[in-house]
Structure formats: C-alpha cells, structure tokens
Amino acid sequence: MIDVINLEKRFGDNQVLRGISITIEKGDIIVVVGPSGSGKSTFLRCLNCMEDPTGGQIIFNGADIADMKVDINIHRRHMGMVFQHFNLFNNKTVIQNIMLAPVLVQCQDLRKAKQKNAVTRLANLFRSSSARKELIPVQTTKAKIKEEARAQALSLLKRIGLEDKADVYPSTLSGGQKQRVAIIRSLAMNPDVILFDEPTSALDPEMVGEVLDLMKVLAKEGMTMIIVTHEMGFAKEVANKVLFIDDGMILESAPPEEFFGAPKNPRLREFLSKVLV
Questions:
Q1: Alpha helices in 125-204 (DSSP H)
Q2: φ and ψ at 79, to 5 degrees?
Q3: Is 43 helix (H, G, I), strand (E, B) or coil?
Q4: What is the pLDDT of residue 234?
Q5: Helices marked H in the chain — which ranges?
Q6: Closest CA relative to residue 236, chosen from 195, 196, 183, 276
Q7: Which residues, 6+ apart, have CB-to-CB distance to 116 below 8 Å?
Q8: How large is the greatest C-alpha to C-alpha distance in the chain, in angstroms?
Q9: 224-228/193-197 β-pairing
Q10: How do residues 152-207 score in pLDDT, each as one tens digit?
C-alpha cells in the first residue's frame, strides 16, 4: 500500500530524516518507537505530506505523493490522521466534527461533476449526435449528502458508546472521549490507512485504556495503521512490525517478539532497558 523510498526531511541545516525506506502492506499494524526528537512524528507527518519531504519518494496506492505535481488533497482522503492533542474544532459539536470532512469532500465532488456537465452540455451543442459526450451521472444532492453523513456519524458514535454526546461541544468531553471521537472522525472518510501520532500521550493514565481498546478493535478488523507511541505493551500485543527510529534513521525493524525479545542494535537495547520495567 505504501512504499517509502529513501525519505529525507531537512529543516534548514537540521536534517531530521536520513534516508528512511520501508514497505507497508495492507492490514499492517506498524508501531514506531524511539527517543524524543528522533524523527518519529516528522516521519509520520511526511507520510501524508503535512510536512513536505526534502528528498525521496512516498508511493501511496501507485502515486508518488511526495511529488509536488501530485494533488495531495485527493490522496489525503484515503489516509486518516489522529493527533496527540485531538485537533477537534471546539466551535462545532461532536457530530459536526465527524460530518465535516465527508460533507465537504462529497459536496466538492458534486460541484465539480455539475460544472463538467455544464461544459459538456455546451460543447455538445456544437457536436454531431454521434460525437456527443455522455454526462457524468449525478444522483445525489447536498441535502442527501448531509443526511447520509449524519447517519454515518451517529452510527460511529454508537459504536464507541457516545451517541448521547452527538450535539455537545468537545470542551465538555474527557480526554479519552475526545480522542475516540477523533479516531471515528478519521473513520468517517473510510480511509485505507490511519496514522496515529502519539494518540495517548496527552491523556490521563486512566483514559489511555479506552483509546487503546478502540485501536485494538480496528486492528482486529484489518485496518492498516501506523502508530507512533510510547505504549510498549500495546506494541507487543497488536503490532505485526515495530520500528526503532533514532537520529532520523530506522535502526531496527522486526516483529514484536524479535524486537523486544532479541534486539540486535545496541542503541535499541539501551533504549529498551530504560523504557521497559
């Protein structure tokens, strides 16, 4: 699904990523660990071009999204992102947060289809009957798009037991509730992959479990996920591959049994000795 080839990222004179290469298959659960400042979050943000790579390629569903000529917004529709600090819109209700992206994208597609049809109709006036082009089928309306998005949002809220919070504002939610809403907001776009940037690090300890439990359910359902986290127990239980990044490079990549049980890299052994108790 994703081929990362010699990925580099530089901020001025500071080179943060130094030639990262990895292949991510459909259904993979990739957990990325490493010390603070090692480039983990930058790597994640480069995957959906929230940070423009300085060098290398990111082949996502056959397209190099690191190429500046590519319309990244089209590909971001298929790549969800969950942030450390939730990034919910505080001036919108919970259900409005979940509906926002699906409604925006589908209304944009509807508008483009209508515009293309208008151009085609005009051009057809000057074509022979045999040369006339067919119109793009348009079988929806803005009202129907909003209706369907609301039904989907309510279904997702019911899934996490927060349907009664649909019309409240995020400020009234606990941290764990906010993060679960942020996760299903990503699911509302039916993504091929979801990126998680330290999704539990801003939560109180008692709220971490409810977020990790939802992520475990997604893993069992086959969702492709790339997760930057400090939750080593979660990595052992859920990941099919764990990456250790330090100084902008992948120093070790292995299944969790090998990664935690028989680490090869000396820097990884030192890191694990400090974080595992």
A1: 142-159, 175-187
A2: -135, 100
A3: helix
A4: 94
A5: 40-47, 72-76, 94-124, 142-159, 175-187, 205-220, 232-238, 256-261, 266-275
A6: 276
A7: 136
A8: 77
A9: parallel
A10: 999 999 999 999 999 999 999 999 999 999 999 999 999 999 999 999 988 988 89
